[in-house]
Amino acid sequence: MKALVLADRLHHAETPIAGLPCPAMLPVAGKPVLEHCLEDIWEAGVRHAVLAVAQPSDAVVQAFGAGERLGLRLDWLPTQGEARPSAVLDATFTDDDPVLVCRGDVMRGRFGRGLVDRAAREGLRDLHAVDDDRPAGMAIVGDCRDSADELDWPRLRSGPPPRTAVRVHRMQAGVALLETLDALHAAGLQALHGRFAGTLPAGRAGFDPDTLTGPRARLARTVLVEGRARIGRNAIVRDHVSISGTVDIGQDCVIDVGAEVTDSVVMPGTYVGRGVRLRNALVCGPWLLRADLGSCKEVDDPQLLARVIDHAPGLVRWVSRLLRPTAVATSSAAS
Known about the structure:
Helices cover 23% and strands 32% of the residues. It is of the alpha/beta class. It has 2 domains: 2-176, Spore Coat Polysaccharide Biosynthesis Protein SpsA, Chain A, CATH 3.90.550.10; 204-330. Strands 12, 13, 15, 17, 19, 21, 22, 23 and 24 form a 9-stranded mixed beta sheet that branches. It has a 7-stranded mixed beta sheet with strand order 5-4-1-6-9-8-10, sandwiched between helices. Strands 14-16-18-20-25 form a 5-stranded mixed beta sheet. Strand 8 (127-131) and strand 9 (134-141) form a beta hairpin. The longest helix is centred in the N-terminal third of the chain and has 11 residues, at 33-43. The protein starts with a strand and ends with a helix.
């Protein structure tokens, strides 16, 4: 079976933070949402997928290329954004074989294997996945090609189950549409607690099974972790930092001395200043969202919150030199 992955959602007024990637590339548990989707369809047996992405799409294409890293063959189809799924399907797949159609710009647990297995078992050519009667953004589309439009972003966002006369497959694997910053904050924390069944956060557990760390993450010995945390690759967490509740710190972040981070998501490349206290927050560079207060504002003091590249460009250059392939090879040879 082949797949059509719709990853062409656009940003809207609900996401005012400057510099956020497109919805398909929003990081949840250390991976872009689209990567979680591609892992799901691979587990369902798909090996060839066409990805519909909004222009400009360079960052998305560069991240996944031809798909070898994930064991997939990926073809790319540029759109103007939020194209009608049935039109994309008709233009891309001209035979009448069923196609696994899914949105690659919403966070979803592993629905693919169960959906494909049931369709094969019962001889179904059209089958839509739902999570607690809410559309999951994934369907097998065969004879009823118009039913692909149930995955159209405005319709999916409205929330009712499929309105076309197709069978539905109910699972409780977890779905988050990520239509607001609050939803992105919640999904980032829930993913570390298994809310999205079968998904794998990036990182490995060390001595503490509740703390995942990515490659080359550096935690000072005096860091205190009480709860569940994920520290992304190349992140630096300095002395006397306190991490409590559930915390997701993205790649290339710097958490400076004495900061306190509770129930928060720190987006990649963010600097959190000395002694800064974050609670129920999503931070992205200088932008601070407080989920409990419903506020979102830009902090104008780079000593408090900033992009790492703005706060300490010298550090970024040093890390870049450190991670060059030649430097890594030299280090490995020396050891």
